[in-house]
Amino acid sequence: MASCSNCGARLTNSSHDLCLECFKKEKEIGYRYQVIKGRIAETIIEELFLTLDYNVFRYGMENSIPGVMTLLRGVRGDVAQNIKRMPDFVVQNKRTGEVFFVEVKFRADGEFNYEKLGGDDYPYRNAHIILVSKKHIKCATVEELKNGKEFQYLGSRKEFETDKETIIEFCKFAVQFFKDA
């Protein structure tokens, strides 16, 4: 009889190397690890915009409705989906007063597209998606992604009036934090 490679418990199905309890723990740890990476990326972007003298307001479900993230895990339905998809931030250019929804995504390989966002079901059509990878910080609007356009370097985005040198410094943070991701 096969046994769990983690705890040694007997396995009822020899095609698996973990018992159900160890599998659930491992899956939970993997989920938490992904959450932590996402929060690091969010913090990098939050601090970047603060450094660029923007007002930054945490907006996502974790901040607007504390505790809801755990409650909605695995829950389906329009309301639950819209809550889960709330952009991470509202940022405001202090000089112009212009306000933007910002959704931050971390992808080690820098690959992200409209379908991964949720496609036509994504409710925040006017959001800017900032993609943090091991090498770059890039940005695209939801509409640009829908139209098949590529992400552009954040420093090239006219609407944010960003400082490329500051962005390069924050890219270095991303490289540091995500080099093994």
Write a structural description.
The protein has 181 residues and is an alpha+beta fold. The protein has one domain: Trna Endonuclease, Chain: A, domain 1 (3-Layer(aba) Sandwich). 40% of the residues lie in helices and 17% in strands. The chain has 7 helices and 6 strands. The protein has helices at 20-51, 61-64, 68-72, 78-84, 114-117, 142-146, 164-178, and strands at residues 54-58, 89-93, 99-106, 128-132, 137-141, 152-153. The chain has a 6-stranded mixed β-sheet. It is elongated, with a radius of gyration of 19 Å. The two termini are 36 Å apart. 23% of the residues are buried. The model has no long low-confidence stretch (mean pLDDT 88).
Major beta sheet summary: 6 strands, mixed
Q: In whole angstroms, how far apart are the ends?
A: 36 Å
Beta-strand proportion: 15-25%
Radius of gyration, rounded? 19 Å
Number of domains: 1
Summarize the structure.
The protein has one domain: Trna Endonuclease, Chain: A, domain 1 (3-Layer(aba) Sandwich).
Keywords:
alpha+beta, elongated, 6 strands, six-stranded mixed sheet, 181 residues, 17% strand, Trna Endonuclease, Chain: A, domain 1
Helix-strand layout with pairing:
Elements: H1 20-51, E1 54-58, H2 61-64, H3 68-72, H4 78-84, E2 89-93, E3 99-106, H5 114-117, E4 128-132, E5 137-141, H6 142-146, E6 152-153, H7 164-178
Parallel strand pairs: 3-4
Antiparallel strand pairs: 1-2, 2-3, 4-5, 5-6
